[in-house]
TrEMBL record:
Residues covered by the ABC transmembrane type-1 domain: 82-265
Ranges that cross the membrane: 28-46, 90-111, 123-143, 149-168, 217-235, 247-265
Topology of the protein relative to the lipid bilayer: Multi-pass membrane protein
Entry's Gene Ontology cellular component terms: plasma membrane
Protein name: Phosphate-import permease protein PhnE
Location in the cell: Cell membrane
Pfam families according to UniProt: BPD_transp_1
Recorded name of the encoding gene: phnE_2
Signal sequence, renumbered to the chain: none
Coiled coil: none
PROSITE patterns recorded: ABC_TM1 (PS50928)
Family named by the database record: Belongs to the binding-protein-dependent transport system permease family.
Organism domain of life: Bacteria
Gene3D superfamilies in the cross-refs: MetI-like
Species assigned in the record: Clostridium puniceum
Amino acid sequence: MNTLKNLISPKKIILNNEKEIQPPIPKLPFILVGLIIVVIVSAELTDFSFEKIIRNGHQFAAILAAMIPPNWEYAQEVIKPLKETIQMSLLGSIIGSILAVPFAILASVNVNHNKPLLLTIRFLLSLVRTLPTLIIALIATFVFDLGPFAGTIAIAIFTLGIVAKMIYEKIETVDMGPFEALEALGATKLKAFLSAIIPQILPAYLSNCLYCFEVNVRYAAILGYVGAGGIGLILNEKIGWREYDKVGMMLFMLFVTVVIIEYLSKYIRGKLR
């Protein structure tokens, strides 16, 4: 309570020579007022209503109840699209992780001293990270037609943006002494990078790649909504037909798959550390 009171109304500071220093103007009340205004405006713009939640919220429970028990006989039909989802995630993650390396090198301040190129690469990576995977998949379906190939491309682009950012931030914290020494001995930037920097960032790089694969399995599950293949296509279809017992089966199998991948990824990442 005293800490909160001091934040709202800080006490005067008295030095050893009995000189008083006026406390700074408290910022917390202004922050709280600003936050309240933002919440009120957001609620108005989004038509948020507790009344609607109370009136229709029970429908969530009704739909969940319709999914239990799941239709176990439908499991055989789920295996193929689920396998497709995992394959899309795996291939897209591998492609994106490999392509992220050169982009990460060009986006690192301590490796790339060409400022216009550096800023251009960072802008492109920021743009890629800004676009949701679903939007990238939608664009990919227009370019490459419907199917899992478009989903794989979308996942690869998303992975590229995330891994490249994580890696270039890691590169900027490494010891540049060995890199500069190899350059002084006549090695090219690429050779110096491979010999001096890659060993320092490799565990973090592999760990980030595994984490992205883990996340991509979740994202890939909804790419079928825009025709990019995977389990999302039949998931959307069964929800539309209100066949909730089959939806429950798909969600159950997807949950088990994600948990297994998550634990395997966590185990491998622990070994890498």
